[in-house]
Amino acid sequence: MNTLEKIQTNLSNFSKSERKVAEVILTSPQTAIHASIATLAKMADVSEPTVNRFCRRLDTKGFPDFKLHLAQSLANGTPYVSRHVDEDDGPDSYTNKIFESSMAALDVARQSIDPMAINRAVDILTQAQHISFFGLGASSSVAHDAQNKFFRFNVPVSCFDDVLMMRMSCINASAGSVLVLFSHTGRTKALVEVARLARESNAQVISITAKDSPLARESTLAVTVEVPEDTDMFIPMASRLAHLTVIDVLATGFTLRRGPRFRENLKRVKEAIRESRFEKPSNL
Amino acid sequence: MNTLEKIQTNLSNFSKSERKVAEVILTSPQTAIHASIATLAKMADVSEPTVNRFCRRLDTKGFPDFKLHLAQSLANGTPYVSRHVDEDDGPDSYTNKIFESSMAALDVARQSIDPMAINRAVDILTQAQHISFFGLGASSSVAHDAQNKFFRFNVPVSCFDDVLMMRMSCINASAGSVLVLFSHTGRTKALVEVARLARESNAQVISITAKDSPLARESTLAVTVEVPEDTDMFIPMASRLAHLTVIDVLATGFTLRRGPRFRENLKRVKEAIRESRFEKPSNL
DNA sequence: TCTTTAATGTAGTTAATTTACGAAAATGTG
DNA sequence: CACATTTTCGTAAATTAACTACATTAAAGA
Are residues B261 and B160 in the same domain? Predict the structure, then answer.
């Protein structure tokens, strides 16, 4: 709940003087955020510490912090909010809603990711002798994408979206093998089983999945991602986007770790594709 | 213009030290709004007055006022700016940059999409007797994802990431066939050729690609998407995300067109997967 | 009415921000 | 290339704002 609404709802819980402060803020919030604690106290006809206590009561660190929160709740220009598609939405409407929900989901995912986990994952990946990407169902395309990306790095990669192949691959895995498993829920039995098998072969298992999930527990390293999934649609949407972005992050970390000379290599890969394309007109 | 964008655009107008401050703020704006001027100065390795001058340069009354503006722009609409990853960025920094760039890219893509093209694409898809998804290279995983999604709709679908298979598939295509081609550039010779072949077989060709590209011209319907691609990295990143989101939009349009009874079907598909998963603890 | 507790204000303390000024760097000029 | 001028930046002092501790008052209960 945003701060302004919070003031509104808690109005009855405040003491007499605190309510005076609340009234002033609700009447002209724009003035409030630019006022000093002294000014505001005078406007509400209370003492400065009362204003301060009022702020603390709203779970803020103090007056300046409170102003920050208030400012944010005032800037309600409908940010990236996940919005549900309605039955009677037109193309224009549902297109926007879905794009906005996707952006909102990425935002949530971003905040939930632990950069240290990313860093450790990059550590492991850079030392890998072979990287395998595994994903089932909707995550199989994510795994394919990862393969495509890391293939460009001139690292031995493979990718499976088939449980039997995964299991066979695990048996042949060794200490230098790194497996990257993608699963939104982290509860797909077959995949959790694969993680266990792989670890029995001393391979390293990195999972991109949900926090505290069976898969996360079964992995050497879990990069946990929180994604708000719109369950109305019964189709995973946002989680793929988040996982793909995690791939981008890992790939970026990988290239950074390898240094500038390595990037020359990427350039050459890209140039190798060029001749398969039609030239762009003149302006470039 | 919001404060964060303003910092981004004026980056070149700042002096050396002010730019250091700008970098710190752009890297972690959330930290910045909660920091004191002293902390921020230390983070940017400049003096406190420099931070203050930086604030004034952005038409604010001073540091506290600046924080207020920044807080608002963080809460507001599109605070995300596409930013390049630096050589010496840490995991925290590049993770944020990439997520933010992705969000910014989706925002640009959203604005560039013509809802009427979406609508027509949905028209065509709902009437299809068979849908094939084609993509090469980085787009092959996009095509796979589309297949996975539309497969749930109980529509005959196929997916190819191999040119020969695509061509064979085109020969066998008929009037009821719909091909969906994914290509960021729209300049991949092989794919443009496939589009032509398909149309010769009277199949409908929908392309998700760049505006005014050879592929767009060769298609029955082009859903054109503009994506700001960070060419520094030599790896396609944002375009896949945008294309996947377009898939989501098309799939959504598809289900809406089919009506509520159709969505019951999706629910059943989802429930069919359930038993392959570990139960979630008790709280749900 | 007295006691106890909660609420509020006063005054002092601490912390943060801003200003004034001077040094250093950068830029332009003879 | 030396010198002058302007811009940039930092140090230190001054100012302002915010917070704490404590005293006082009001309210509630016995």
Answer: yes
d(CA B248, CA A85): 12
Query: Which of these, A189, A220, A198, A51, lies nearest to A125 by C-alpha position?
Result: A220
Q: Helix (H, G, I), strand (E, B), or coil: what is residue B228?
A: coil
Quick one: average pLDDT of A230-234? Answer: 55
The minimum CA-CA distance between B170 and chain A, rounded to whole Å, is 20
- Give B28's DSSP letter: -
**Domain with A38 in it: what CATH number?**
1.10.10.10
**Mean per-residue pLDDT for B158-163?**
94
Q: Cβ contact (<8 Å) for B141 and A137?
A: no
| Residue A48: strand, helix, or coil | helix
Say if residue B166 is in the same domain as residue B234.
Answer: yes
Residues 6+ apart with CB under 8 A from A31: A43
Domain identity same for B20 and B70 = yes
- Shortest CB distance from B240 goes to which of A77, A145, A234? A145
Q: Which residues between 185 and 224 in chain A have a beta carbon less than 8 angstroms from any beta carbon of chain B?
A: 185, 187-190, 192, 214
Q: Label residue A270 by pLDDT band (50, 70, 90).
A: low
> Beta carbon of B55 within 7 Å of strand C?
yes
CATH number at residue A145: 3.40.50.10490
Strand C at less than 7 A from CB of B36: yes
**Contact B284/A at CB under 8 A:** no
**Residues B139 and B42 reside in one and the same domain:** no
Which of A9-23, B8-22, B71-85, B246-260 has the least mean pLDDT? B71-85
Nucleic strand C near CB of residue B63 (< 7 Å):
yes
Structural contact between residues A230 and A84, judged by C-beta atoms closer than 8 angstroms? yes
Strand partners, B205: B179
